[in-house]
Specification:
The chain is an alpha/beta fold and 300 residues long. Helix content is 32%, strand content 17%. α6 links the parallel β8 and β9.
Length: 300
Amino acid sequence: MADDIRTQTRHQEIRLWADAPPPTTLPAKPPESSYVTPEGVAKGTTMLRNVSEPTLTVFRPRGAANGAAVVVCPGGGWRILAWEHEGLDVAQWFADRGFTALLLKYRVGPTPETDAEFFRQAATQTVRLDAPLTAAQAPKAIGEIARDPSYAAAREACADDGRRALAIARDNASQWGVDPSRIGLIGFSAGAFLVADVAVDPRAEEPPAFLAAIYGGETRGQPVPKNAPPLFTTIAHDDRLLFHMVEGLYADWSAADISSSLYIFPRGGHGFGMVRQGAPTDRWLDLLEDWLVDKGFGPA
């Protein structure tokens, strides 16, 4: 799927901060690079790292347009971007359903310049994060896992990129045939924290029209705004690091009397995105599509 959309949209790219510097900065890092992940749920898919120049890539609807748009935010723990199975493939899925899909390549924290050192560092971290946990041991906030201040700095920069992407989408809506009040956000893992951060604190922006936070997100105890968008969120119960956080995100939205839907699958792990595993999580896209239709974002 990804090859088609790369060809279709190779030149349709907007720099987020072409006219002014971003309000947040991150440390200098090696040049941006890509690699194919060698293991895990997303084995064989393309990832990006050391992203310094954030962009928004526009994927026009295939077939009849429905007048809506969505900003797609891949995950990657604020250090990489799961560019293919949480980005390119997701953008195509939305474009196939009449949306203008806007793929956000946001800034991330630095990783080693050489692939060998990066993979060595990543393997060490994977061992630490994959340690078995009981429900009582499972963290309820991302700060319990990502304690290094560099993660908080990257998270803030990513949220600023998300707000800027939403502003650019609205500024360009008329030329894309999009109603500016019908622009939503979807994010995965770290991207889910990004979209939740933007929805809770949009700053000068109006909130998005809908919010899909896939295996991630939290409010950090901040009140959910009265005009926050409806929430769709989902996670696998065996995603032991994040399932309590997703439960908490849903609970905060629900307590604020804002439409919210939570789907917990018995298994599927973390980071499944568009990967088909023969697991219960393979059905999440069907549920998302039904939810979007119910919220008025169906086919044209």
